[in-house]
Amino acid sequence: MELKQKNLPQLAKRISYPNYDREQLKTGIVHIGVGGFHRSHQAYYIHKLLEKHGNMDWAICGVGLREADRNMANVLDKQDCLYTLVTQGSDGKVECEVIGAITEFLLAIESPPTVIAKLAHPDTKIVSLTITEGGYNFNPTTGDFNFENPDIQHDLAHPDDPKTVYGYLTAALRKRRADGLPPFTILSCDNIQHNGDMIRKMVLDFAKKQNTELAKWIEKKVGFPNSMVDRITPGTSSEIIDYLKKEHNLEDEWPVVCEPFIQWVVEDNFSNDRPPLEKLGVQLVPDVTPYEKMKIRLLNAGHSVLGIPGAIHGHSTIDACMQDSVFSKFMRQFMDKEATPILGEVEGINIEEYKDSLEERFANPNIKDSLSRICSESSAKLPKFLIPTLRENLENGGSIEYVTFILAAWCYYSDKNLDDNGATLEIIDVQKDELHQAAKDTQGNWKAFLNLSEIFGDLIENERFVKEYIFAVQAIYKGKDVRKSMEGLL
Ligand code: CS2
User: Fold this and answer.
1) Host H or E run for residue 377
2) Averaged over 82-98, what is the pLDDT?
3) Which residue of 181, 197, 294, 426 has the fewest C-beta atoms within 10 A of its own C-beta?
4) What is the extent of the structural domain holding 207?
5) Bridge partners of 95?
6) What is the value of pTM for the model shown?
7) Atom 3 (ligand 1): residue with closest C-alpha?
C-alpha cells in the first residue's frame, strides 16, 4: 500500500498516523533544508503538538533551495508530504509513526516568487533552517560573510529572483515590511555554537549591502534564537524501506530512522508568535550557550573522533567503533581529558552522566549510523566540533594529543582515500580536492596539511601543536595501522 493520506485508515494497527485533520492546518513554519534530521526532530515535535494539543496553526511548509532537493520534492509530493518515522531502541524495540506535520514542499528553483510569497505570508511566523554547518557562507578564518560567492553576487544583483537562503530571507522580509507585517523569527537548527547569532550576523551583513533601511529594520525587529538540537538520525537505508514493505505492507520511498533520544533547547527570543514548545518537553532557556557547547564539543566531536580513524581502520558504522574497545576508550579519553575540562558547569546537567549516555547512544546496534555520513563535510564540521577545543586547550595548557591525533588521521584520510585494508574510502566533502592537494605532500613535508589556513588558521605557527601533530602524523603514516597508533595513546 502506498503511503498517502487516503490510505492511512488502512494502515496496520502497529503504525500510528496523524489523528488531526491535515486539511484544516495553517502553515506557521517554513523550514529550509528538509532532510532526515528535520523530519526526525522539529517536524516530530510539531506532529506531537498537532496531535496532542490540537493547535492547528503550526504546520510546516518545507523548502528546498538546491537541485539536490528535487528527490525530496518528488517523494513528498507523491506521498502527500507524509513519511514514516522509525524509532529504533537499543533493546530492539521499534516504533513506527506516520508524521503529518509537513503539509507542503516547495522546490525553490521551480518558482522563486512562490517561495518568497510563502515566506512573506501573514501565517508564517517562523522560518527555521537546517542548511548544514557549511551552509552559512562565512569565511572560516575571519568569520565574515563571503561576498565572493557567485550565488551571493547573483542575489545582490537580482533581489527578486534569489538563489541563496540570504536572498530569500531578505526578499521576504522586505515584502513583509512593505506590507506592514511583523517579521518572522529566524530559527537556526544547525550544529553551530551560537547558531542564532551566526545567522543573524550573516543576514545583517548581506542585508546591509542590499538595503540599509531593511538591514536596520531586521536588526531591530527580527529574533534569531540560539538553539541546541539533538537526535541521532542516520541516512535512510534500503533495508528500512524493505522492512516497512515486508512488515507493514507500507510503501514509503523515504522513511526516516532515528534513536529514541530527542532534545531541543531554545532561547525564548522569538519576534513573532511561537508554538507552545514547552508543552512538548522543549527547554526554553534564557541562554543556550552551555548546552550547545556541551553537545557540539562532546556528541558531534565524539562522532568525528570515532568516525575518521574508524573509516581508516575499516569500520563502517559508529556502533561498530563502539564495540571496538580501542575506539571507545580513545573517544572517552578525548572527552574526559580534552573536552570536559573546557566545558565548565552546565546548569542542571551532570557531565559524567551525559558522557555515559552518549556512549550508550553511540553503541545502539540498531542505529547503523554510517561513518561516511559522519565523515562527510568534515571540512565544515571539524572547525566547529574539534578545532575550538584544541585552541582552548592550547591557551590553557590542557591536553591536546587526542584532538591532534584526529587531525593527523584526517590528513591521512584525505591523502590516501584508502582504509587500512586497502579498500577505497568514499569521501564526501565540498573541499575534497583542496584537502587532498594539501595532504598529498605530507610524506615530503610533515606539516603540509596544516597549510590549509582556511581550516587551521595560524595553528601551523604553534610550536607545541606542530610538534604533537608531526608525532601523530608520522605514527599514522609509518605505522600503517591507525588502530595500533590509537592504542599507543591509551
Ligand atoms: C553528526 C550529527 O553530522 C554529524 O557529524 O555528529 O549529525 C549528529 O548525529 C546530530 O547532531 C545528533 O543530534
Assistant:
1) none
2) 97
3) 426
4) 5-285
5) 87
6) 0.96
7) 374
